[in-house]
Every structure is written in structure tokens, then in C-alpha cells.
Amino acid sequence: MSRTLAPPFIVSAPGRVNLIGEHTDYNDGVVLPMAIDRHVTLRVSPRDDRLAILRTDRDPRAVTLDLAAPIVPVPRHWSNYPAGVIAGYRRLGFDPPGFDAEITATLPSGGGLSSSAALEVATATAIETLCGRALPLDEKALLCHRAEHEFAGVRCGIMDQFAVCFGRAGHALELDCRSRKAVHVPIDESVDVLVFDSGVKHALADGEYAKRRQECAEAARKLGVASLRDVTPDSLVDAERSLSPTELARVRHVVAEIARVPAFVAALTSRDWPEAGRLMGASHRSLSQDFAVSCRELDTIVGIAARIPGVHGCRMTGGGFGGCAVALVDAERAENAGRALHAAYRDATGIETRWFLT
After folding, report:
1. Are residues 110 and 212 in the same domain?
2. What is the pLDDT of residue 5?
3. What pLDDT, on the 0 to 100 scale, is given for residue 201?
4. What is the extent of the structural domain holding 348?
5. 174: burial class by Cβ within 10 Å (0-12, 13-18, 19+)?
6. What is the pLDDT of residues 183-196, one digit of tens each?
7. pTM, rounded to two decimals
């Protein structure tokens, strides 16, 4: 006699942009991401066997996972994100039944908006729903973070998963990546956040992201500190004797970027938009010159945005090497600013791309 299956359900998780604090999370620094109104959604239907069958609108081939057998990663495949999450929950004693999952997204993949973290957190929520119990949000975020390391091969920091799990409408999230303390920071309604896709996809597992992380770890080792969070602006003078020029540039970015986050929070709180814009510009220059993770297209967006009325500041967001830029714009002029940036970028690069306000 067949058992009655639980009803189908839908789970959804947002992407994120990072307003400031880039490449500081894996250096135990401070970041300021915010969740956005673009999502990954799973339509889940329980099955009466032990198979998880995953389908996405971006790949015609279904992926089948046997939940009664060990789950292992598949080289360079999108299914590693949900598979790693499912494996993580099974290690904790969660025993999900089989299910079908139809995966759709309004987030672009490879756009620097954390589509991978959104897929991980949506999968985690589906497993918790199927099992009828849930982890605390911080443990859920850390499980998804481990899945990205172990299955997708991307040694990211904790920012993306925490931003997706803890995001709150109308707020950014000031996250201390060492203590994991998270504080919601209101964003005044007189400004909007404009997200502009460069049209250049990045692939963080391809090596450059891991190289930057290794450079930071090696610099910290040479300086005798646990992480670059422990380097102060004053100690940078002494660091010049210990580091290569490349390592010194990487440290210079991380130290300055960590300091920019609380300064930006103060500017948001006091509605000092010129100062907020100045900090975003300084962040982008540092990422482009000292950390070398920007690209011609992202630099072009930031340069154009600086000339558009209503734009307070603009910078690349995410891991870099393509993806999106983020701008803080006057709410009353935001639509016109977005259209002007779109037209000028198309004229400069020939790229027809997407943008949205959030």
C-alpha cells in the first residue's frame, strides 16, 4: 500500500549585491551586502522513492541524486551547489525523502549577484521543509558555505550565504566575518540601488579568485598575523620590507577596504551621499588597481556613472573579472540614471545588457 505523499511546495532565496567591503570576507574583515529582489526558486514535489531529481530551465538534462548512496561532486557542473548542500544535511542526520525540484531563477548566473548562494540556501530550505526541522540561520549559512568549498571548488568567504540567509527588506547587512556578528543597516528611501550587468560573465573557479585568496594568505603568513584583518594602516609601512610589490598591493586594498565599510555605514546613517559616493569610488579604484579584479567593461561602467546626474557613487560588486556594478542613486532620478547609463554603455562597448533598481 503506497503512502500518502506530502504536498508540493515552493521555496525561494534572494541574490545579493555588496555595497562595499569586497574581497575582505575571507580575510576576516567587514562587509556590507544587501539582499535583492531577484531570486532562485525551487518548486518541490516529494517522491515515494529515495531519488532527488533536479531540473533547471537553463539545462535540458535532469540531474538524479540517489539519497541512499554517497553524494560526490561532478567536475564543473551546476548540480554541485545543491548536491553539496544535500550532502551536508545528511552528515548532520537529516534524512530527506526523494523529491523532484524544478529550479528557475530571475538571477543571472555568473553575474556576481550570488546565484550560487541563492541556489544553496533555497536547496537548504527545501531539505529543512522535507524533513520538518531546521538549523539556526547562522549554521544554515555555514553549511551552504562549506558546500561551495567542498563541492563547487570555490573557496569563497561567508558573505554571500550570510547575506542570503539574513537579508531584510530595506536594509543592508553589516557583517563582521570574524565574529559573525550581523547588524541590519537601514537604507533611506531617498536613494535607490542600481544594479548594472556588464554582460561579461565571470567564473570564480577558474583560478584568479583562488589566486587572490592565496596571495592574501601568503602575505598574512609573512607578516605573522592570523589574517589581514590584523594589519593596521600604520603597520603597512613596515610591511613594505616583507612583501613583494603584488602582495603589498593586495594588503593595501584589504586594509583600506575594511576601513571603508564603517565609514560607508556612517555615511548611510547620516544621509551623507557625497561621502558615500566618494567611498564607493575609492573602493572601485582599489579593486581595479591594487587588487586587479576589475575589467575594462566594469571600469567603463564606473567611469560613465560618474558623469550621470543623480548617481552618488558606483563600483564593481562581487568577486570581479566581470559581473555587475552597483550604484547608489537619487531615488527621484533613478530611472533616468539607469536608462542613461544603459545607452552610454551600449554606445561605448556595443554590449546590450540588463539593469534594474532594487
Report:
1. no
2. 81
3. 82
4. 187-357
5. buried
6. 999 999 999 999 99
7. 0.92
328-358: pLDDT as tens digits = 999 999 999 999 999 999 999 999 999 999 9
Q: How many domains does the chain have?
A: 2
Same domain for 94 and 157, yes or no, is: yes
Please indicate, yes or no, whether residues 40 and 78 belong to a single structural domain of this protein.
yes
Nearest to 325 by CA among 316, 313, 338: 316
Residue 320, C-alpha cell as written in the block: 570581479
Q: Are residues 145 and 199 in the same domain?
A: no
Choose the catalytic residue: 25, 28, 160, 192: 160
pLDDT at 205 over 70: no
Residue 75 region, left (φ>0) first, then alpha (ψ -120 to 50), else beta? Answer: beta
Task: Judge whether 330 counts as a catalytic residue.
Answer: no
Measured CA to CA, the distance from residue 132 to residue 96 in angstroms comes to 9
Residues 195 and 171 in one domain: no
Domain boundary (183, 201, 232) is at 183
CB atoms under 10 Å from CB of 272, counted, come to 16
